[in-house]
Each structure stands twice: as C-alpha cells, then as structure tokens.
UniProtKB/TrEMBL annotation:
Complex and partners: Component of the ARISC complex, at least composed of UIMC1/RAP80, ABRAXAS1, BRCC3/BRCC36, BABAM2 and BABAM1/NBA1. Component of the BRCA1-A complex, at least composed of BRCA1, BARD1, UIMC1/RAP80, ABRAXAS1, BRCC3/BRCC36, BABAM2 and BABAM1/NBA1. In the BRCA1-A complex, interacts directly with ABRAXAS1 and BABAM2. Component of the BRISC complex, at least composed of ABRAXAS2, BRCC3/BRCC36, BABAM2 and BABAM1/NBA1. Identified in a complex with SHMT2 and the other subunits of the BRISC complex.
Name of the encoding gene: LOC102440895
InterPro entries according to UniProt: BABAM1, vWFA_dom_sf
Domain of life the protein comes from: Eukaryota
Basic and acidic residues bias spans: 23-39
PANTHER family, A to Z: BRISC AND BRCA1-A COMPLEX MEMBER 1
Keywords attached to this entry: Cell cycle, Cell division, Chromatin regulator, Cytoplasm, DNA damage, DNA repair, Mitosis, Nucleus, Ubl conjugation pathway
Source species: Myotis lucifugus
Keyword Nucleus: yes
Compartments, as annotated in UniProt: Cytoplasm; Nucleus
Protein name: BRISC and BRCA1-A complex member 1
Ranges where the record places region Disordered: 1-86
GO biological process terms held by the UniProt record: cell division; chromatin organization; double-strand break repair; mitotic G2 DNA damage checkpoint signaling; positive regulation of DNA repair
Bias (Acidic residues) ranges: 10-22
GO cellular component: BRCA1-A complex; BRISC complex; cytoplasm; nuclear body
C-alpha cells in the first residue's frame, strides 16, 4: 500500500506567501490612524527622487550645445574720443558781450508778473541783464561788459566797460521794431571786429589773460 507523501511547497507558493505577508495592513494606532505603511511610501518617494536626479545628470552629460549657443567672448569697448577743452579750468577775467533781441515780438504783453499785471519779454530781459551784470561785477571787478542789440542789423551800443552803470544807462532806452529774419554771421563778424581773442599755447596749463563770452537773449 502506497502512502502519498505531503508535497513540499514550491518556490512560487513561497513567494506568494511572502507577498501576502508584506501586504498585510499595519495596525491602527494614534500616530497612524489609517494604518498606512509609511516606510513603503518613503521608499517609493526616495526612488522617484533618485530617478529624477539621474535624468538631470544624464541631461547634463548629454551632447554639447550647438555652435553659437554659448556665451559670446567679452569685447573691449573702443576708447572714447579725446575732447579738447579750449577754456581754462581756473577763474579768469571775462569780457562778456550781451546781445539783446529787439524784434517786435519782445514787446508783446505775453507774460504775467507776480501781482497779476501784464508785461513783455523785453522788460523781463532788461531786469535780468542788469541783475546779472551787477552780480558778476561784485564777484570780480575786472570783468568787462558790452551791449549789442539785434534786429535787422546789429548795433554795438555800449563798449567793453567794467562799470555796470555805464551799460545799464543805455539798457532801458530801447525800442523794438518788426523784423523778418536775421543772419547770425553779421553778429559774429561784429564781435570779431570789436574784440581780440587771446592767444595761448596750452590753455590747460597757462591760463589766458581773459576769456570772451557771448550771451544771446532772444524771443
């Protein structure tokens, strides 16, 4: 009589039993009321993170960038052009030539004073010139001033003088007239005839005896 021996479990059955044991839910506790297996979730997240890092590493180790995609080499900017300064860097006596426009537009009452009364550009310019000349004279008594009026033609009214009263005496006795156009070349030619520009070799190291400045006040 043959007795059947109990068959030993196969390897597949052993693996299934191990999986069932691993899938068994964890007991519910206060810290884990849902009975979740946190260790398994942590392992899964760590694995996914390492996979992402591996992808980034593989992307960095990939083929080099295409030509021209890299940073351009730094270029040295061209040197700035040298600026030649023709005026001294120290205070010098000045010959100031004030040119005042006497066109008809200067006498039109377009401006309003502080008290509400109407005034024109000529009155404002006359007061401004007088204030400028007197203030400039207080700073340096050696400054000289001249007054030139501009209309259809140019007229040299007051020669170069260091006395502000002499210039202001002929500043307010002026009348405007209609003027269609004006050529600046005539003004510059008159200034060259009445004044002489100082000649110096190096104005930066040796200041000239004086400088000539021209101020044009026009409407």
């Amino acid at each position: 009589m043959e007795v059947a021996e109990p068959s030993s479990p196969t390897e597949e059955e052993e693996e299934e039993e191990e999986e069932e044991q691993s899938v068994e839910p964890r007991p519910r506790t206060r810290s884990n009321p849902e009975g979740e297996d946190r260790a398994l979730g942590a392992q899964t997240s760590v694995g996914s993170r390492s996979e992402g890092e591996g992808e980034a590493a593989s992307a960095d180790d990939g083929t080099p960038n295409a030509l021209g995609a890299g940073p351009k080499p730094w270029q040295v900017p061209p040197p700035a052009p040298e600026v030649q300064v023709r005026t001294p860097r120290v205070n010098c006596p000045e010959k100031v030539i004030i040119c005042l426009d006497l066109s008809e537009e200067m006498s039109l009452p377009k401006l309003e004073s502080f008290n509400g009364s109407k005034t024109n550009a000529l009155n404002v310019s006359q007061k401004m010139i007088e204030m400028f000349v007197r203030t400039k004279h207080k700073i340096d008594k050696s400054h000289e001033f001249a007054l030139v009026v501009v209309n259809d033609d140019t007229a040299w009214l007051s020669g170069l003088t260091s006395d502000p009263r002499e210039l202001c005496s002929c500043l307010y006795d002026l009348e405007t007239a209609s003027c269609s156009n004006f050529n600046m070349e005539g003004l510059f030619s008159l200034i060259q005839q009445k004044t002489e520009l100082p000649v110096t070799e190096n104005v930066q190291t040796i200041p000239p005896p004086y400088v000539v400045r021209t101020i044009l006040v026009y409407s």
